[in-house]
Amino acid sequence: MRKLGKKISSIILASLVLTLGLSGCQAKSNQTINDKNKETLVISTHEFVEDTFRKNVFTPFEKKYNVKIVLELGNNINRLDKIREKKNKADIIILTDYFAMQGIEEGLFEKIDRKNIPNIENLYDIAKEPLGKDYGPAHTIASYGLIYNPDKIKEPITSWSDLWKPELKGKIGLNDIKNAGGPFLLLIAAEQAGVDIKKDEDKAFEKMKELSKNVLKFHEKASESINTFSMGETVVMDSYSFEAQSVKDNVSQAIRIDPKEGSYALMETVNVVKGTKNKELAEKFIDWILSEEVQKAQALDKVDSPTNKNVKLTPKESEDVIYGKDSIKKFKTVDWEYVNKSMKRWTERWDKEINPKGIK
Predict the structure, then answer these.
(1) What are the tens digits of pLDDT across the range 319-346?
(2) Where are the domains of the chain?
(3) How far apart are the C-alpha atoms of 40 and 42, rounded to whole Å?
(4) How many other C-beta atoms can be found within 10 angstroms of the C-beta atom of residue 199?
(5) N or C: which end of the chain has fewer CB within 10 A?
(6) Which helix (H) or strand (E) holds 236?
(7) Domain 142-264+333-354 in the same topology as domain 8-141+266-323
(8) pLDDT in tens, 107-152
(9) Partners of 145 in the beta sheet?
(10) Could you report the per-residue pLDDT of 87-113, keeping only the tens digit for each?
């Protein structure tokens, strides 16, 4: 879940690539015949860092189980919509917890058989059943925090409250409400207003409206947010921990922080799509992506933070990833069921009160 910065064009190209495991476009005829004889597993996943996932996750799984993996690539919203519209033939879907909860509530996923996924027992508790015991575990975890350019601000950013400072007017880039990070912002605004959003939604929106005056852009995509920051149009942006290195690739002095009030956990879940004919193979894949071997490889490449507690990393290896129970236990979690029930109302209010012209 990283390395967006200098490779935005390759991200666009990656979204056109739907099949893994082939040595090139001009595959040899005997390879094509072999592939036709293999069982196929279709995985709906994110369109970035495809090469690293291929190396650490997909290709080794193909070799171990003599299968062919085909990818459906895109962002959370588009891929979930394809399943809703039955335009996606995926067996497995990888989604952040916010979007995965929507799929669960809409009956789009199969209930998993945990006996077929023994590596679940090796996960930190927060990752074992983030959305209920019948559905997919979290294969990685990220924190939602802030990145700032210390060369362009007077004081270091340490708190969520710093976003409201007058000197940051027009210098901040944030997620739109429709993105996974959007609901976090509204919850943070409620905290800064000193209210429980479930009891006083109006004050949360009032506080968020104040913050919107400092916002140059509300972004639809992480790549847009990173580009704007990299070009110096913004000096502060909200971000996930997995984006830190991508930003630093372009702005080496950038600093990422988890604000002193605490950060929210964003978990990436792996679920089996309703109606698949490959449920057993899909559960083998889930067990595979949770394995110590795969999780460590992803951590060493700074792509995913491990949720398997058996993964051991040196201090150097653990830089730029979330590692260990002490780090994980500090995270705040979200009542996604409540958030999803509120999103239609929140989105309407957001588009009217916070960002009335749509995405800036």
Answers:
(1) 878 999 888 888 888 888 899 899 999 9
(2) 8-141+266-323, 142-264+333-354
(3) 6
(4) 9
(5) C
(6) strand 236-240
(7) yes
(8) 999 999 999 999 999 999 999 999 999 999 999 999 999 999 999 9
(9) 239
(10) 878 999 999 998 999 999 999 999 999
Note whether 71 and 17 are within 8 A (CB).
yes
Residue 127 in contact with residue 141, Cβ under 8 Å? yes
Per the listing, tokens 């015991």 go with 133
List pLDDT tens digits, range 54-95: 999 999 999 999 999 999 998 888 899 999 998 878 999 999
- pLDDT higher than 70, residue 20: no
Cite the beta strand spans of 34-188 per DSSP E. Answer: 39-45, 67-73, 92-96, 138-148, 172-175
Structural tokens at position 227: 């580009």
The CA distance from 225 to 216, in Å, is 11
**How far is Cα 97 from Cα 269, in angstroms, rounded to an integer?**
6
**What sign results for the dihedral spanned by CA atoms 145, 149, 154, 156?**
positive
| CATH fold group of domain 142-264+333-354 | D-Maltodextrin-Binding Protein; domain 2 (3.40.190)
Paired tokens of 138: 């979290």
- The C-alpha atoms of residue 95 and residue 268 are separated, in whole angstroms, by 6
Helix (H, G, I), strand (E, B) or coil at 268: strand
Residue pair 149/229 in contact (Cβ under 8 Å)? The answer is yes
Cα 124 to Cα 169: distance, rounded to the nearest angstrom: 40
Q: Domain 8-141+266-323 is classified in which CATH homologous superfamily?
A: Periplasmic binding protein-like II (3.40.190.10)
- Please report, as a single letter, which amino acid is at residue 62: E
Q: By CB neighbour count within 10 A (0-12 exposed, 13-18 middle, 19+ buried), where does 277 fall? A: exposed
**Number of residues assigned to the chain:** 360
Q: Both tokens of residue 114?
A: 């945990």
